[in-house]
Write a structure and sequence with these properties.
Keywords: Carbohydrate metabolism, Glycoprotein, Golgi apparatus, Membrane, Signal-anchor, Transferase, Transmembrane, Transmembrane helix. The protein has helices spanning 6-19, 23-37, 43-48, 54-66, 79-83, 99-110, 121-143, 145-148, 154-167, 188-200, 205-221, 225-234, 237-242, 250-254, and strands at residues 2-3, 94-95. It has 267 residues and is mostly helical. It folds into 2 domains: 2-122 and 223-254, no CATH class; 127-205, no CATH class. It has a two-stranded parallel sheet with strand order 1-2. It is globular, with a radius of gyration of 20 Å.
C-alpha cells in the first residue's frame, strides 16, 4: 500500500486536474465547482470549468465530503476509503515522501540480501520518471488541443503547463516561457526541448524542494482559517491519524509571508 500526505495529495490533484490543461475534467467537475462556489460566474466559466481556484477546489472537497457525496471524486477522497487499512492487513505501507528508501528496505527484506547495493538507483529512477512524465504531460496537452481551445488559447495552455513544471521543481520559477507566440511548426518535440533545456540547468535539489514548498505554502495560505479547520476535521483527519502525518497546517502557515511571485497568477 502506498500513501501520501493528504494535504500534498489534494494540492497535487488540484494542479493536475484543474490548473493544468485538462478539458475533460474541467467539464466533469470544474463547471460544478464554479456554479456552487463562485457568485456571478459567467456562462463560459460554468460551461468550461477552466479556471477553478484552489480556494474553490477546497470548498468543493469539504462540501462533498459532508453534504453531497454523489459529487465526490475518487482522486480527492481520503486514502483510507480506497485501501481499507482497518479491514486489510498490509505487509508494507510505503509513503510517497520516502518511497525510494521504503522500496530499498522492502527489496532487501524480501530477497534476504543485506549486502545488496542499489546506490544511485533512486537518482536514475527520478531522472527516468521525470523525462517520461514531461513527455506524457506535453503529449496529452497536444492531443487535447481541440478541446482546450474551446475554453482557453493554446498559448495559455502552454503557459500553464510550463508553470506546472515550475511548481514541481522541474524548471526554475524565474525561467519564463521563452516564446511570445507559437510558431506554425510548434509541436511536442519543440515544447519538450524547451522544457528539458531549462530543466538541465536546474541542478540544485534544495531549489527543487524549495519551489515545491513555496507552492504548498502559497496554496494553503489562501484558505480562510475556518475552511482550513473544516478540511482538517472532515477530510484529512483520519488519514493523518492512521498514516502518521501532520494533523494541522496552522503552525506551518502562521509564519508564512507571501512574496511578489505567485504560482497561480494565471487564475
Amino acid at each position: 500500500m502506498i500513501v501520501r500526505d493528504p494535504f500534498e495529495r489534494l494540492l497535487s490533484g488540484y494542479i493536475d486536474k484543474f490548473f493544468l490543461p485538462s478539458p475533460i475534467f474541467w467539464k466533469k467537475r470544474g463547471g460544478y465547482i464554479i456554479k456552487q462556489f463562485r457568485p456571478n460566474s459567467s456562462v463560459k466559466e460554468q460551461s468550461c470549468g477552466h479556471n477553478v481556484t484552489f480556494l474553490e477546489f477546497i470548498q468543493y472537497v469539504v462540501h462533498v465530503s459532508t453534504r453531497d457525496k454523489n459529487m465526490e471524486e475518487p482522486h480527492f477522497t481520503p486514502m483510507h476509503t480506497h485501501c481499507k487499512p482497518c479491514l486489510i492487513h498490509y505487509d508494507y505501507v510505503w509513503k510517497m515522501e520516502t518511497i525510494m528508501s521504503d522500496f530499498k528496505h522492502a527489496i532487501k527484506h524480501l530477497i534476504n540480501m543485506k549486502d545488496l547495493h542499489i546506490d544511485g538507483f533512486d537518482f536514475r529512477m527520478d531522472k527516468e520518471h521525470l523525462s517520461s512524465d514531461v513527455i506524457s504531460r506535453i503529449t496529452f496537452m497536444f492531443e487535447r488541443r481541440y478541446d482546450i481551445e474551446k475554453c482557453i488559447t493554446f498559448y495559455e495552455a502552454c503557459l500553464r503547463t510550463w508553470r506546472g513544471f515550475q511548481m514541481r521543481g522541474v524548471i526554475d520559477k524565474n525561467d519564463k516561457f521563452p516564446l511570445i507566440s507559437l510558431p506554425e511548426d510548434f509541436n511536442v518535440t519543440v515544447y519538450k526541448d524547451l522544457v528539458m533545456k531549462s530543466s538541465n540547468a536546474m541542478k540544485s535539489k534544495s531549489k527543487v524542494k524549495g519551489q515545491k514548498k513555496e507552492v504548498f505554502l502559497e496554496s494553503y495560505s489562501l484558505l480562510p482559517v475556518k475552511l482550513l479547520e473544516q478540511l482538517e476535521g472532515s477530510v484529512t483527519k483520519i488519514d493523518t491519524e492512521i498514516f502518521n502525518y501532520r494533523k494541522s497546517l496552522r503552525i506551518l502557515l502562521q509564519d508564512y509571508k507571501r512574496n511578489n511571485f505567485s504560482y497561480f497568477d494565471f487564475l
